Amino acid sequence: MIATKRTRFHVWLSTFTLTALLGFLGFSTRATPCANTTPEDHEKSILAFRAVASVMTSPRCLNCHVPGDAPLQGDDNHPHPMNVKRGIDGKGSPSLHCSACHQAENAKFLHGPPGAADWQVPPANTPMAWKGLTMGDLCRTLKDPAKNGNRSVQDLIPHMETSLVRWAWNPGPGRTLPPLSHDEFVSRLKEWIDTGAACPE
Amino acid sequence: MDTTRFTINGKPVELQIDPSTPLLWAIRENLGLTGAKFGCGMALCGACTVHVEGNAVRSCVTPVKAITNKHVTTIEGLAPDRSHPVQRAWLQLQVPQCGYCQCGQIMSAAALLAAIPHPSDADIDDAMAGNICRCGTYARIRKAIHLAAEMAGGQK
Fold first, then answer.
1. Facing residue for A100 by CB, picked from B55, B123, B125
2. Tell me, what CATH number does B7's domain have?
3. Averages of pLDDT over each 10 residues, chain A, 201 residues
4. Which is nearest to B77 in space by CA: B63, B64, B87?
5. Across the interface, which of A83, A101, A104 has its CB nearest the CB of B43?
6. Do B68 and B33 reside in the same domain of the chain?
């Protein structure tokens, strides 16, 4: 009986120590506050991320951040016609590049090919796919350098200023806009980072 | 009107033209090269395909300002003596029916073989799916691309 109690204590102590150590080292994947943020910051961070995610999951972003080998189109996320493929570099198949149709700017007519400088989808080795992810998984994917193009969370800010990302707010005729303005989107992204880049469960 | 300079079929040209004019208009109306065809005008059918720096491009949605100082090749410049393996394969297998889409088909096929000298059926599907043929000559197109790959290999 005494041995059992001692064993339980040791198991509890080991679990507590391991949890504390992992938490200290930042290995936790739960929605626990970071060591250097307050619970208030943590809540703000989660709210800020939800706002960021509302843009990331809008059709203008989601249609290219897909698993598999081909981009999607439209507000209903239908497959891109013409058997278009991602390609190794994200710029199409070797014989049918994205730039065959997508120029540096939008076509002026309804449903014409959208365009921006460096039009592409994420490359095959880092597809940055978030279609179908939960809010928490989306957040962790965004933070993981192995899945986000080897970026720190700070590096995400300049990415959101590229012409390709900014295109989402100038998508050409017939396409809906993300739910936040670009300024508000970047502001909420910075708020999320500044408050600890916390992730929902 | 602005001055736009580029090279077409190996010859430098200079056009006084609105920079937003589609390349297809410049090729057909200003330069008199009528091989590339107007089909949909929305990059949906491939009839207007030309090469820009060797890559297949839909000229109906490409503004001339995008090709400034670049090299453009049309069907007329692919091989003026019709000796390109794709042209020879097309003739040998009598690929076209009505023919309207075929200049675009040939230009896409030539770009494919330049990128992948011995394409699989899947490679052909990837490259050619954007070129529509309302006569349905797709089976002959596929055969001709494989034949052109053999012909090009035999030339080496």
1. B55
2. 3.10.20.30
3. 47 44 39 67 96 97 93 95 93 91 94 94 92 94 93 95 96 95 98 97 88
4. B87
5. A101
6. yes
Kindly state the average pLDDT of the residues B109-122: 96
Do B49 and B97 lie in a common domain?
Answer: no
B130 with A107: Cβ contact below 8 A: no
Residues B100, B45: one domain?
no
Q: What pLDDT does A94 receive?
A: 81
Do B46 and B104 fall into the same domain? no
By three-state DSSP, how is residue A79 classified?
strand
Beta carbons of B55 and A97 less than 8 Å apart: yes
By Cβ distance, the residue of B42, B61, B126 closest to A96 is B126
E-strand stretches of chain A: 72-73, 78-79, 92-93, 96-97
pLDDT of residue A159: 92
- Partner residue opposite B56 with nearest CB, options A95, A103, A109: A95
B127 token code pair: 């490259």
Q: What is the pTM of this model?
A: 0.85
pLDDT in tens, B64-103: 999 999 999 999 999 989 999 999 999 999 999 999 999 9
Give ∠ CA A155-A186-A190 in degrees, rounded to 5: 60
Pair (B63, B90) in one structural domain: no
- Is the domain of B45 the same as that of B91? no
Tell me the helix, strand and coil percentages in chain B, rounded to 5. Answer: 40, 15, 40
Domain that holds residue B32: 2-78
Is some CB atom of chain A closer than 8 A to the CB atom of B127?
yes
Residue of A nearest to B54 (CA): A95
Closest residue on chain A to B122 (Cα): A83
Q: Are residues B63 and B6 in the same domain?
A: yes
Of B103, B127, B125, residue with least CA distance to B115: B127
Contact status of B105 with chain A (Cβ, < 8 Å): no
Per-residue confidence at B155, pLDDT binned at 50, 70, 90? low
Minimal Cα–Cα distance from B124 to chain A, Å?
Answer: 9
Name the nearest CA neighbour of A154 among A145, A163, A165: A145
Number of domains in chain B: 2
